[in-house]
Amino acid sequence: MRLSICIAILVSLGLLGCVDSPNFDNTPSIQYNSIDKFTIFDTFSQANADSLVITIDFEDGDGDLGVPPEQISDTAFVNRVYKDWGNYELTVFERNEDGTFKLRPLALFSSLFFPVLKRDGKPGPIKGKLDLRQTFPATRFGKLTTVKLQVRIRDRALNVSNVIETDTISIYLD
């Protein structure tokens, strides 16, 4: 009985060693997963604000996604390396009355970052889900506006992913 259990364990371990690791490209790839809206109370403006959680699925061959907190807090480093945008780019498009969409520039989205996703620091493939929570400033004069967002990410080697687009969602914008 013990011999058969030992053999079963050895065979299982041997089979696990035969599993190939995924072969993802070193340029990150993303896919749209979902967008959810929550209403929060903004204590600064004393008004309700819309908070969105955008979920994307990602793959990266060398696992160099995310930026360490000490680099994010180093303004000179961020300006030199990441320049116009962080490692998460969010672009907002507002629906016009005729149903077309136009770019809605929002300065608060100019430098977004997410933390390092592969904590062991070893190069290797990584796959998963990434949630970005973004709150839109609350104002007493905002109007309900239908928007869609475009997202792309980049890794520490500055390889830029494809662009994905969310479903439309209605939020309050000034």
Explained architecture:
- There is one protein chain.
- The chain has helices at residues 2-17, 69-72, 75-81; strands spanning 29-42, 47-60, 88-95, 101-103, 126-135, 143-153, 164-165, 169-173.
- With 174 residues, it is α+β, with helices and mostly antiparallel strands.
- It has one domain.
- The strands form two sheets. Strands 3, 4, 6, 7 and 8 form a five-stranded antiparallel β-sheet that branches. Strands 1-2-5 form a three-stranded antiparallel β-sheet, with no helix packed on it.
- The longest helix is centred in the N-terminal third of the chain and has 16 residues, at 2-17.
- The chain is globular and about 50 Å long.
- The termini are far apart.
Label this structure with key terms.
alpha+beta, 5-stranded antiparallel sheet, 3-stranded antiparallel sheet, 8 strands, globular
Briefly summarize what is shown.
By secondary structure, the chain is α+β, with helices and mostly antiparallel strands.
Topology:
Elements: H1 2-17, E1 29-42, E2 47-60, H2 69-72, H3 75-81, E3 88-95, E4 101-103, E5 126-135, E6 143-153, E7 164-165, E8 169-173
The fraction of residues in strands falls at 35-45%
Report helical residue fraction.
Answer: 10-25%
List the quaternary state of the chains: single chain
> What is the mean pLDDT?
85
Q: What order do the helices and strands follow?
A: HEEHHEEEEEE
SS field, number of helical segments? 3
Poorly predicted segments: 5-11
The Rg value, from CA coordinates, equals 21 Å
* Domain module count: 1
The total count of strands amounts to: 8
Structural class by secondary-structure content: alpha+beta
Signal peptide: 1-17
Keywords: Signal
